Amino acid sequence: MDKVFSGEITLLKALAIILVVSGHLEFSVFGMFPPYSFQLALFFFISGMLFKDKYLDDVATYFKRRIKSLLVPYFAYEAVYLLITIAMVPVIGEFFGSPLSLKNFFITPFLNGHQLLLCAPLWFVPQLFMTLIVFLFLMRTLRPINNKFVELAFFAILGFASIPVWKVLPEHTPFALVVIRTTFSLFFVYLGYFYVKYIKDNYDIFTTKWLGAVILFQSVLWLFNRDYDPVHGIGLSYVLVWCRFDDQIIVPVFTSITGIWVCLLTVKLLYPYLKDVKLLQSMGKVTYHIMANHLFVMYVITLIIFNIKGIPLSEKGDKIYSIYNPVQTTYLYFVAVMLITTYFGVFQQFIYKKISTVVSTKLLHKDT
User: Comparing C-alpha atoms, which of 182, 153, 199 is closest to residue 49?
Assistant: First the structure.
């Protein structure tokens, strides 16, 4: 991976996590793209950009690396947030999550990931793991055909057919949720893979003509909004974890594609100016930790404000997502949450590296 591409990926990750946090604070970074209109599709796309063909012949290594990078920290975070949730019961007066059980700890993460509300955004991680494993085996299956257009057509069918299939299913079971989320996200993983392998160095898709076409197309998509609210964008927004697509059939797929394109363009234009900004570099390297901790940090900030002002928590509204006086404080929340979670993530990585170094050194001395 060359230095520029690696730097652009890091900046793209930073932008992706900014979009997630801003979405949970219900404001839009890009005016024509409301919260929840493409953010998670962008993360799947980035995962596809980083997929290497060598893993098609080394399934065991791919499994081990994805388990180590995705599932191990996930269950570590789940254990920590379980303790935090239990400790908060005397303060809050209730348990923010599903009842304690082995099923909810080990199985529910792969079904909806909302067993603990304070770290609910991490539902994405087990889903990403499942999607990438399925993607690996599908690519192995399609490899004998050796035709990129057949591959693209196959994954496009999965992506575009996922919502119509969900609409006609007689029963929306937890298993059905997993299947639809996976087929939907597989398309964007492949798009990321396809972009890096066949488009990035061969075609310029960031010309003014492309920009005009995307703006025109997105303005047409905006017609499918239910209330034309620039903030909430009902119709363009969708909630992938619960497969809530409103009355739309293919609009969520299209707005995800155009949103990803806008993010790629943004990174292309800004990378020369932002490549040395350490905060953004750090942010892009600790997206996992920001995803895990930002909702909890938001909640703690709200608890502090409510306590200072003497407001009972019963007036908070939504248990987790609502914040104090959003008209005035939304952007203060955003800046505070991004700074706290980013630097806490950097600190976590520092501690992890120190521990790994000490353990490795002790093992080395033991062997000698």
Answer: 199
Q: What residues contact residue 10 under an 8 Å CB cut-off, 6+ apart?
A: 280, 281, 284, 285
Mean pLDDT by 10 residues, the chain (368 residues): 86 97 91 90 97 96 96 97 94 90 97 95 97 98 96 98 95 95 98 97 96 96 71 75 91 96 97 95 97 95 90 75 87 97 94 78 64
**Residues near 63 by Cβ (< 8 Å), separated by ≥ 6?**
133
Contact 37, 232 (CB under 8 A): no
How many residues comprise the chain?
Answer: 368
Residue 135: how many CB atoms within 10 A of its CB? Answer: 21
Q: Residue 319, SS3? A: coil
**Contact assessment for residue 66 and residue 132, using Cβ atoms and an 8 Å cutoff:** yes
Q: What gap in Å lies between CA 350 and CA 368, rounded to an integer?
A: 27
Phi, psi values for residue 152, rounded to 5° = -60, -45
Q: What are phi and psi of 320, to 5 degrees?
A: -115, -50
Question: Which sign does the torsion angle of CA 187, 191, 197, 199 carry?
Answer: positive
How far apart are the two ends of the chain, measured CA to CA in Å? 35
Average pLDDT, the chain: 92
Do residues 156 and 12 make contact, with C-beta atoms less than 8 angstroms apart? no
What lies within 8 Å, CB to CB, of 198 at 6+ separation is 148
